[in-house]
What we know:
The protein folds into two domains: 8-103, Arc Repressor Mutant, subunit A, CATH 1.10.10.10; 122-362, Rossmann fold (3-Layer(aba) Sandwich). It is 50% helix and 14% strand. It has 16 helices and nine strands. The strands form two sheets. Strands 5-4-3-6-7-9-8 form a seven-stranded mixed beta sheet, sandwiched between helices. A two-stranded antiparallel sheet has the order 1-2. α9 (143-169) runs parallel beside α11 (192-200). The longest helix is centred in the N-terminal third of the chain and has 29 residues, at 8-36. It is globular.
Amino acid sequence: MTQRDLDLNLLKMYSFLVFSKLEGAVTSGMIHLGDQLGLYRSLSSFPQPVTSEELAASLQLHPRWVQEWIHNQAAARLIEVAIDDQGIERYSMTPEAVVVLSDELHPAFGMGMFHRLPQTMHSLKVLPESFKTGIGLDYDSHGPEGAVGIERSFEPWSRSYLLPVVLPALDGAVQRLEAGALVADIGCGAGGAAIRMAQAFPKSSVTGYDISRFALDRAHEKKTIDATDNVHFVDPRVTPLPENESLDIVTAFDCIHDMTHPQDVMQAIRRSLKPDGIWLLVDIKALDTFGENMAKNPMASLMYGISVMSCMSSAMSAEGGAGLGTLGLPESKARSMASAAGFTRFRKLDIEHSLNAFYEVRP
Length: 363
């Protein structure tokens, strides 16, 4: 490395850069608290700007704690503040802030990752050992709240787009579902997508597969609440995918890159599908190289960091894990892996999404 004299201006700028990352981490913790305590939901329900004391009273919280929390949020430009001539502060949320921070029905709702933030950050205590052994942590290491966080991340978008946008984009899928199809949802998580498909197409039978006991517990609970009889949830290590080419449709939402042996799973999907079956593969939008991701993805640093604490960790939680990670399945790799698994047709769907890419894969 070339040596040079220390530039005090560059030192100041670099220190600011480093501590801006710490600010983001600390403010993320405050976002978690705002979600868990209902502060965003309460603030968004007021028809006019309110003081921190009024917000605290609405939730029976201590006003001094709420004041310090909301100062962080306003300083971070997440919540609006107006200060009058008497120095009285009144707070409000923009319509955009409302949908991201408090409206669980809107597809832009973003609290899922913040819900499981304590569990994700807790992994820092044990990850040093993973760096030594190469063995990561599976999703159940994040506990039940980890499963809930993933559920809250994906449910708003799935609720808004799976039935009206994604399934109709698959050639002939809706017609087959209406007539009665055998469907498998791989990595079903808490079961939202599987239940949604089962309810929309009562002649079809949907089976959700997941290895997370916490996610399966959530899925079984939701099935009972919704009284949906044509959906079932199983652990593939106990009840594997059929190998007799009997399934009409298989879906896999944002899970292949998390798997220890994704190529084996793709081969299992191929063996399960009818010769004219459909595999809907949805995974994180990524480019072929780190250089491209760094240059073109403004969230690249976040995604690589989450990968260390979650996605890649899961993908290396067993000996010989593939370790694809969050940005490890670009279209070119997904296409080549599908081909190696025996699929002959691979089509990227014309669906715009900030995070995911959508593929129709056929035998």
